[in-house]
């Protein structure tokens, strides 16, 4: 009675949150939302024939992350630069080395946050996708969380959903010769 | 599992504030602000949204002479066949599972033991557990080596116990992860026994630090 495991194709975009890493997968007749938290995965299915609408809402997550990364990155860089610059004016060797050591300790952290700032900026605007189905109402999808990825997902799903909804009537055995509808 | 309701959604609600969005603003496809909360939204509406859903199947038709009948209700006319066992079923017995139509027996038997992948809602990933416990020393540091007997054994157990168990639903079984966990578990045990040997064998210390 075992069924063959369905084959899934990865859809663009993913999310990282406390609830786990979210990703969408395209199955034969449904979209699978998988949220994995270390050693455990949770699934939710949205059948193509049931999807009534997909709403994409632009969020301000990128801006807030950029503020956080920017403060830590640029602030850290300014502090490290300041300490280094201050050290150049100190004539005694020991305090100068201490200042430069502090600057050297802060600089990698500043660089780390500046790289995060750059990556977050390059990934583009953030969004939240919501799928509205005929059966279960609206549901916020775990992924994608970037507008660019959401557009790619929509471009991929729209023709499939339209095709699925055009032929969602169940097939009938010819010998019965009657319709289920 | 999909269950169809007779009434399609007649409006799209703003995900931020729940306000019913004007469809004419959404229909042009671009981004438009919610009239209430000003959240910037774009919506893609599919045919199901506009087309009223068919009425939910109620009572099945009575079978006439010479007509195929439902396996479970001999008085009802068969409407379709179960896609697992091939039995004729009426609209009452039809259990739609995505695009498939099953009979109640096949659906019930598929609920246990994860026999129907369409019904799986969570999975425990044994291979990932093996890898995680195998990698623990890299996170905690080698100075916690007395605990390696526990984590190493756990990594080996998880890798072997979960070898034939179903893995992630979309990614499938990832044996390479389990093998990596197994190797790391064996290394931990080897390290633990090595350290134990060093601490218990006094002659080794005597020779080394003479």
Task: Provide a descriptive summary of the structure in words.
The complex is a heterodimer of chains A (181) and B (210). Helix content of chain A is 44%, strand content 28%. Chain A contains three helices and seven strands, in the order E-E-E-E-E-H-H-E-E-H. In chain A, helix 1 runs antiparallel to helix 2. Chain B has 210 residues and is α+β, with helices and mostly antiparallel strands. Chain B has three domains: 39 residues, no CATH class; 65 residues, no CATH class; 74 residues, no CATH class. In chain B, the strands form four sheets. A two-stranded antiparallel ribbon of chain B has the order 1-2. Chain B has a two-stranded antiparallel ribbon with strand order 3-4. In chain B, 34% of the residues are buried. At the A-B interface, strand 3, strand 4, strand 5, strand 6 and strand 7 of A face strand 1, strand 4, helix 2, strand 5 and helix 3 of B.
Counting DSSP H or I runs of 4 or more residues, the number of helices of chain A is 3
Radius of gyration of chain A: 26 Å
Distance between the termini of chain B: 73 Å
Kindly state the number of beta strands of chain B. Answer: 9
Main sheet overview of chain B? 2 strands, antiparallel
**What is the SS-derived class of chain B?**
alpha+beta
Low-confidence stretches of chain A: 169-181
Low-confidence sequence ranges of chain B: 1-8
User: Beta-strand level of the residues of chain A, as a percent range?
Assistant: 25-35%
Largest inter-chain interface? A-B, 60 and 67 residues
Number of strands of chain A: 7
Overall 3D shape of chain B? flat
Q: Determine the fraction of residues in helical runs of chain A and give it as a percent range.
A: 40-55%
Spatial order of the strands in the main sheet of chain A? 1-2-3-4
- Largest sheet of chain A, if any? 4 strands, antiparallel
């Amino acid at each position: 009675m075992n069924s063959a495991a369905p084959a899934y194709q990865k859809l663009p975009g993913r999310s990282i949150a406390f609830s786990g890493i979210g990703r969408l997968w395209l199955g034969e007749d449904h979209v699978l939302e998988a949220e994995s938290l270390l050693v455990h995965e949770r699934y939710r299915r949205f059948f193509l024939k049931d999807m009534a609408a997909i709403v994409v809402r632009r969020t301000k997550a990128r801006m807030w992350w950029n503020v956080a990364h920017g403060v830590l990155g640029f602030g850290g860089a300014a502090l490290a630069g300041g300490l280094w610059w201050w050290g150049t004016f100190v004539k005694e060797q020991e305090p100068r080395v201490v200042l430069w050591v502090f600057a050297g300790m802060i600089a990698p952290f500043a660089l780390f946050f500046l790289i995060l700032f750059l990556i977050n900026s390059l990934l583009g605007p953030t969004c939240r996708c919501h799928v509205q189905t005929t059966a279960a109402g609206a549901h916020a999808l775990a992924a994608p969380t970037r507008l660019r990825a959401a557009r790619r997902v929509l471009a991929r799903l729209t023709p499939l959903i339209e095709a699925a909804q055009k032929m969602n009537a169940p097939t009938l055995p010819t010998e019965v010769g009657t319709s289920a509808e | 599992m999909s269950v169809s309701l007779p009434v399609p959604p007649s409006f799209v609600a703003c995900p931020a504030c729940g306000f019913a969005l004007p469809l004419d603003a959404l229909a042009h496809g671009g981004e438009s602000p919610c009239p209430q909360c000003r959240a910037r939204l774009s919506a893609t509406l599919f045919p199901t949204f506009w087309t009223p859903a068919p009425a939910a199947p109620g009572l099945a038709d009575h079978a006439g002479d010479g007509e195929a009948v439902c396996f479970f209700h001999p008085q009802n006319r068969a409407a379709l066949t179960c896609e697992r066992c091939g039995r004729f079923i009426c609209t009452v017995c039809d259990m739609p599972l995505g695009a498939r139509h099953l009979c109640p027996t096949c659906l019930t038997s598929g609920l246990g033991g994860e026999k129907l992948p369409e019904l799986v809602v969570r999975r425990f990933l044994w291979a990932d557990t093996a890898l995680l416990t195998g990698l623990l020393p890299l996170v905690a540091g080698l100075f916690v080596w007395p605990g390696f007997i526990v984590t190493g054994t756990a990594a080996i157990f998880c890798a072997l116990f979960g070898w034939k168990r179903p893995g992630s639903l979309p990614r499938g079984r990832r044996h390479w992860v389990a093998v990596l966990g197994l190797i790391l578990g064996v290394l931990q045990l080897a390290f633990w026994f090595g350290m134990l040997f060093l601490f218990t064998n006094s002659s080794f210390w005597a020779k080394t630090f003479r």
